[in-house]
Amino acid sequence: MAPLTMRNLLLQSKFCRLAACISLAVIVTASHAATQSIHPCRVPGFHTEVQCGVLQRALDPARPSGTQIDVHYVVVPALARRKLADPVFFLAGGPGQSAIGVAPMVAQQMSRLNNRRDLVFVDQRGTGRSAPLMCDEDSKATLSQLLDRKRHDVLLQQCLAQLQKLPYGDLRFFTTTLAMQDVDAVRQALGAERVNLVGASYGTRAALEYQRVFPRAVRRSVIDSVAPPDMVLPASASTDNQATLDALLSACEHEANCARTYPQLRNDWSHLLASLPKAATVTHPLTGVSEQLTLTRETLLGGVRTPLYSPVTTSALPQAISEAAQGRFEALLALGSGLGARGANRMAEGMHFSVVCAEDMAHLNATADRPGRDFGNEFSQLYVDACSLWPRGSVESAFYSIPVSKSPVLVLSGGIDPVTPPRHGARVAQALGPMARHVVVPNAGHVVMGLGCMHDVLFRFIDAAENTDAMKVDANCAVKIPRPPAFVPVSRAGQGAP
Predict the structure, then answer these.
(1) Which residues have C-beta within 8 Å of that of residue 108, sequence separation ≥ 6?
(2) In this predicted structure, what is the pLDDT of residue 29?
(3) CB 83 within 8 A of CB 75
(4) How far is the first Cα of the chain from the last one, in angstroms, to the nearest whole number?
(5) N or C: which end of the chain has fewer CB within 10 A?
(6) How far apart are CA 316 and CA 309, in angstroms?
(7) Cα separation of 336 and 147, whole Å?
(8) Could you write out the DSSP letters of every residue in 56-86?
(9) How many angstroms separate the Cα of 121 from the Cα of each of 60, 125, 185, 287?
(10) Contact 414, 447 (CB under 8 A)
């Protein structure tokens, strides 16, 4: 799951997962593509030619002659002449991320797999090139405008109205189950009997749904930073954000340099929260223009939530919190907005809300997750407001089940992931049964497959000829990765050095 842009600082929604379902009879009928074409092409980020494909699919599978959408995909051909028959399909996060947009980076991480297997990147319906549901960017807004809840609600209503005017604007049909039908249609078009799935963040929910509906088409699965189908995003995010923030505060107290440099970090954080809302003069982290605005708890928590995704950016939070406690908020706001995706990596907000509102929000009142001490219900309320007006697709009860897997599944979790921590991966691995193996990287954040040694673990798991060998792959290299120390400015490091 990846955070949205600065304009959506109040909705740091990078980590959602969701879906909707229809009957098996419709699934079988809808699996046949109306038209398909594939041709050599150039894609930004790739130095060599790849293959671009497109399938025409019914927006509503129950009406195969109704509105059609184009589902785009990219195939990075295997280098070997005698390639293996089972390609690797990558399922992107979000919900709302373009698989084709992140393909160059992911393909580099999977370069060893690409020696003998095709890599396939399908833009899920509503994302990237496949009937995109993108809101207009608000790049010229001031900080005050960006952080204005009422203005944000108006913009969201305008976005909804804009999306509903599209030829494919019935937002009830942008769900995970329908998207996985599209993915299987791509598999059939490519002539692959079985595929290997690699899903990250929300892509893990997509992978679990694909395996539920098309179990015979799956050879191996890697699900990294697991977002189960029964996760209620806003509620679980508050719980898990709080746990990761508390772990940061404790880590600072036990790290000599951090404790020496920021001895009052926990108190600074508590007093800072208690002081809000308050008027402040802040320099815009992108334009450099000084502005006067009112800082709220939502603003502060949004500024903390995003950097918690990565241990590297988390290491800068003690300094940012310390400065904010002294009235200097620029560092915290910059960290809160700096990971926002732009260009090809931008989230499709319309698809994001179509998925989350149809799925997670239906179970918000029944969740067992309790609000975090600091994060509370603010994040949930943002989705309650948005989903009160967003069209919702239907969801069948079977979607929330996780059948026992008949093929090997490698489950990966980061120990300090603020949104999909090990507690989610553990229960999914248990439900999947003896063919699932759960690997926890204690000092990793959100999505661990990008860590250097994990490239090899991923390769050996998928490449192993026998299932028993795949299940025995050694992942100890990742377990030993240390947590990055807290960032200390050079001047303060010199003053505090023993």
Answers:
(1) none
(2) 29
(3) no
(4) 41
(5) C
(6) 12
(7) 12
(8) EEESSTT-TTS-EEEEEEEEE--SSSS--S-
(9) 23, 12, 13, 35
(10) yes
Q: How confident is the model at residue 342 (pLDDT cuts 50, 70, 90)?
A: low
**Is pTM, for the whole model, over 0.70?**
yes
pLDDT tens, residue by residue, 289-309: 888 888 999 889 988 999 999
AA letter at 461: F
DSSP 213-252: H-GGGEEEEEEES---TT--HHHHHHHHHHHHHHHHHHHH
Residues contacting 198, CB < 8 A, separation 6+? 88, 89, 90, 91, 110, 207, 221, 222, 224, 449, 458, 462
The full length of the chain comes to 498
Instruction: Name the CATH superfamily housing domain 6-134+172-229+398-479.
Output: Alpha/Beta hydrolase fold, catalytic domain (3.40.50.1820)
2 — pLDDT class (breaks 50, 70, 90): very low
SS3 168: coil
In percent, the amount of the chain with pLDDT more than 70 equals 89
The CA-CA-CA angle for residues 227, 228, 233, to 5°, reads: 60
What is the domain partition of the chain in residue ranges?
6-134+172-229+398-479
Cα–Cα dist 352/163, whole Å = 13
Residues 6+ apart with CB under 8 A from 263: none
Residue 191 DSSP one-character state: T
